[in-house]
Design brief:
Elements (H helix, E strand, L loop, with lengths): L1 H26 L7 H14 L12 H4 L3 E4 L2 E6 L7 H5 L16 E3 L12 H5 L5 E3 L6 E3 L12 E3 L4 E3 L14 E3 L21 E3 L6 E2 L13 E3 L4 E4 L13 E3 L4 E5 L3 H4 L6 E3 L4 E4 L14 E3 L4 E5 L9 E3 L4 E4 L7 E2 L4 E2 L8 H10 L21 H41 L14 H8 L4 E2 L2 H7 L8 E4 L4 E6 L5 E8 L7 H10 L9 E5 L5 E7 L6 H4 L1 E5 L4 E4 L2 H21 L4 E2 L8 E3 L5 E3 L6 E2 L3 H11 L17 H17 L10 H11 L22 H17 L10 H9 L2 H5 L5 H6 L6 H4 L19 E3 L5 E3 L13
Parallel strand pairs: 2-3, 3-4, 4-6, 5-7, 6-8, 8-9, 9-11, 10-12, 11-13, 12-14, 13-15, 14-16, 15-17, 16-18, 17-19, 18-20, 19-21, 20-22, 23-27
Antiparallel strand pairs: 1-2, 24-25, 25-26, 26-28, 27-28, 29-30, 31-34, 32-33, 35-36
């Protein structure tokens, strides 16, 4: 009886639990209904190289994969936007989505901002018949649009902006009867706008801006009664605006700027556009009188732009109270108009500032056969204030006093610089190239002649094609002198292109690089493949592509595609990188005449090829080293401390000691594994460097364990190398520039670091008595006494070529602790 009672009580609980379980399972996303779809997603994961943390292989795609949406076990949505590829996937990216060919239930595909170089596959419009949203914005898509896209009769949103799509707009798109949003802006489309687009009766947004479309605007587009936003700007459209566009009653935005449209602007075009908030027909060839602007009933929030045309005649005094009206750069005339929200410059108004000249206005009206306002008054310049005789006395006194000071300074400088002038003359007589002072202007003509012998010239169109129109997807980083883009030339060569905006950069920032390369190439400088200097406001430099990027993003690299694990570079590779960078700097400091200073040595300027061989980049700050004698004389005169790291003007120092200091921070970054040391000057970083250097002791190797990168797995011998490199770094980071080693000596130490720590350690008294037997460990503790017997008294190193073609110092394997040549 008791058992029956318990069963009767537990039975409802069992039923409730079963109901909850069934209900919860039915509400969750089920795995793909067929093995075919799951296999397609796994193949897509491999072909695109999606990182494992976004699409973990052992988890259900419908529930655990980012951007994957399923409905009743069927794949319905795929969003690649924001996903990142593995390093392997980034090497050969392409429009590799063929595995989706059988996912016929796909409703939405979004890859905006995801790099998909290549053309849209034809099968996409044939197989994915259920597709409603296709978003490929800024995906580096190229080639023509396949007409098969017109077969997607359920398509509602089609976004292809920000790519390199070529060809014309297919007529087959007239079958996209459900389309409401079409954006083809910022591409390379040519041809005319097809009148068949008038069949898109549900279209609300139509954006064809920033292409190369030509011909007239089809009058049939006036039948698109649902249209709210129409943008045809930045094309080469010609002829008049068709009057049929006046039927677009629901239009909110109309942008026809920067075209070749012309003719008179009819009042009928704006009569029915009462809901407009943005109206722009600027930079065309419109003429005649302005239309009646009072028709805009919602004037308080309207922006109207009629600038850069040829509108003429008197301006109506009843302008609407819009948020902005731009009428500048026309030939309007009349009385003075005072409105804070109206731009009237470069017209023919009376009493207004910044107007055209009387001759310009009169000539235009005469040639047009129009009456001109004879009472036109040219703008009057502001009156010159008159000074009293007493004020003039003070002015003259100040002028002559200032001239006296200038004369005295000039005399002092002549006395100081006279010996330097004699030395320079003797150099010229010996056919030695004189030292170029920092900041000296360089003649563009001479450079262009020299460039022919060592680099190629590219056209701007080639650069646009290589970078997909400088697409954001190709942007690597924002550099000091310009933006850095990845690109691919017509022959398939991968390159890196630096885009220098001359309006915001130093005028000679690219010239210093060209001068450096014109003096000869070196394996430790990133190869310059070419240039494009045809534009005044934009200069382009083309470099060899370095597969492993720079040191800042290669010190730790992803090696496991499954768990996205990170592994740091081993010590052998780190020492190889340090030695390669030292070779490059030694070339600049000792093999160039005059010596060059890099001035931007940090982890991000040390570029790495596929074998982790080093090439120095970021060469826009390179300049000739300042002449020491001149600098010392002026320094003594002005009482400027010679130990300062920055010049009085705040610019980067043009001396080799500054490069050595920056290189010391790179060495410390390699030893400790701490990222960002070399490119930071903040207080916390300086405090950390001082604290770390206090642990670097020439006689106590055990302290290395307190600052060495814990990810390094090294044996006893390699730990000695780490200790030696830390000692070298500390010497490079000496706060007094005069006590820092030369790069030639740093290179010797890095090529044989065991000599730094394994030579016999002498006491301080013995060192004073036996300066010729100075050990390497002591050598890096006091650089004033080091390398006193260096064979290169002029600071230049004799070089020979090793197996890799790099520049090496002769006799480095036999050199002794004193720095002799052996």
């Amino acid at each position: 009886m008791v058992k029956l009672l318990l069963l009767s009580l537990l039975l409802p609980l069992h039923l409730c639990f079963l109901f909850f379980l069934v209900n919860s399972v039915s509400t969750q996303s089920l795995p793909p209904s067929s093995k075919l779809e799951r296999a397609a997603l796994l193949n897509l994961r491999a072909s695109l190289g999606i990182k494992a943390k976004y699409w973990p292989k052992k988890h259900d795609p419908c529930t655990n994969w980012t951007g994957v949406t399923c409905s009743n076990g069927t794949l319905t949505g795929l969003n690649l936007s924001g996903l990142r590829r593995t390093r392997y996937g980034l090497r050969n990216p392409s429009f590799a989505i063929d595995s989706l060919m059988n996912c016929t239930g796909l409703i939405s595909f979004n890859s905006s901002g995801f790099y998909l170089p290549g053309s849209i596959p034809v099968w996409l419009g044939q197989n994915l018949s259920a597709l409603q949203v296709l978003d490929l914005r800024s995906s580096s898509v190229s080639g023509p649009i396949p007409p098969s896209i017109g077969s997607l009769d359920k398509l509602n949103v089609l976004l292809l902006s920000g790519n390199s799509i070529t060809g014309s707009i297919p007529d087959s798109w007239s079958r996209l009867s459900l389309l409401s949003n079409l954006n083809l802006s910022v591409n390379m489309l040519t041809g005319s706008i097809p009148s068949s687009l008038s069949a898109l009766r549900r279209i609300k947004i139509l954006d064809l801006s920033s292409n190369s479309l030509s011909g007239p605007i089809p009058p049939e587009l006036g039948s698109l009664s649902s249209l709210k936003r129409l943008n045809f700007s930045n094309n080469t459209l010609a002829a008049d605006i068709p009057l049929q566009l006046a039927n677009l009653h629901n239009l909110v935005e109309l942008d026809l700027s920067f075209n070749d449209l012309g003719g008179e602007f009819s009042d009928n075009l704006t009569m029915n556009m009462r809901d407009i908030v943005f109206f722009d027909v600027s930079s065309n060839n419109f003429t005649g009188n302005l239309p009646d602007l009072t028709v805009f009933s919602n004037a308080s929030g309207v922006t109207l732009n009629f600038s850069n045309n040829k509108f003429y005649g008197n301006l109506s005094s009843s302008l609407p109270n819009a948020s902005l009206i731009d009428l500048s750069n026309n030939y309007l005339q009349g009385l003075e108009v005072n409105r804070n929200n109206t731009l009237l410059s470069t017209n023919c108004f009376r009493g207004q500032p910044d107007q055209r000249s009387l001759t310009d206005c009169n000539t235009f009206y005469v040639l047009s056969g129009l009456p001109f306002d004879e009472d036109y008054i040219a703008p009057v310049p502001p009156p010159v204030s008159r000074k009293s005789n007493k004020d003039l006395k003070y002015v003259f006194a100040g002028v002559f006093g200032g001239l006296g000071v200038i004369v005295i300074v000039v005399i002092i400088l002549v006395l100081i610089l006279k010996p330097c002038y004699k030395r320079s003359a003797s150099q010229r007589s010996a056919n030695v190239e004189p030292v170029q002072e920092e900041g000296t202007a360089i003649d563009d003509q001479n450079i262009s002649i020299d460039l022919i012998s060592f680099t190629d010239s590219f056209t701007y169109e080639q650069m646009l094609q290589a970078t997909s129109g400088f697409n954001d997807a190709n942007l690597i980083k924002h550099g000091h002198s310009g933006d850095i883009f990845s690109g691919r030339l017509e022959d398939g060569t991968e390159v890196v292109i630096k885009r220098i905006d001359m309006r915001s950069s130093r005028k000679d920032c690219y010239m210093s690089e060209l001068v450096l390369y014109s003096k000869g190439t070196h394996t430790r400088l990133v190869p310059l493949l070419g240039h494009c200097l045809e534009h005044e406001t934009e200069k382009l430099m083309v470099y060899k592509y370095m597969p492993n990027g720079d040191l800042s993003n290669s010190l730790y690299r992803c090696t496991d595609l499954e768990d996205d694990g990170l592994q740091s570079l081993d010590w052998i590779t780190r020492l190889k990188i340090a030695t390669g960078a030292a070779e490059g700097l030694a070339y600049l400091h000792h093999d160039c005449n005059p010596p060059f200073v890099h001035r931007d040595i940090q982890a991000s300027s040390i570029l790495l090829d596929n074998k982790y061989e080093v090439c120095l980049g970021s060469l826009s700050e390179v300049c000739a080293q300042e002449v020491d004698n001149n600098q010392n004389a002026i320094t003594k005169l002005l009482r400027i401390s010679s130990s300062s790291e920055s010049t009085p003007s705040g610019s980067l120092p043009a001396n080799c000691a500054y490069d050595v200091y920056c290189f010391g921070k790179v060495l410390l970054e390699l030893v400790t594994g701490r990222l960002g040391i070399s490119n930071s000057e903040d207080t916390s970083t300086k405090e950390w460097i001082d604290q770390t250097l206090s642990l670097v002791n020439n006689y106590d190797r055990d302290l290395v364990s307190k600052f060495v990168d814990q990810s390094l797995v090294i044996d006893e011998d390699l730990l000695e190398e780490v200790w030696a490199v830390a000692i070298v770094a500390k010497s490079c980071l000496n706060p007094k520039p005069a006590k820092r080693p030369q790069m030639a000596h740093v290179l010797k130490a890095l090529e044989n670091p065991f000599r730094v720590v394994r030579e016999e350690d002498f006491s301080a008294e013995i060192l004073r008595k036996n300066s010729s037997k100075t050990s390497w460990s002591t050598l890096f503790g006091n650089w004033r006494q080091s390398f006193s017997g260096s064979a290169h008294s002029q600071g230049q190193s004799q070089t020979n070529k090793d197996g890799n073609g790099g520049s090496k110092l002769s006799g480095r394997d036999n050199s002794q602790g004193s720095g002799g040549t052996g």
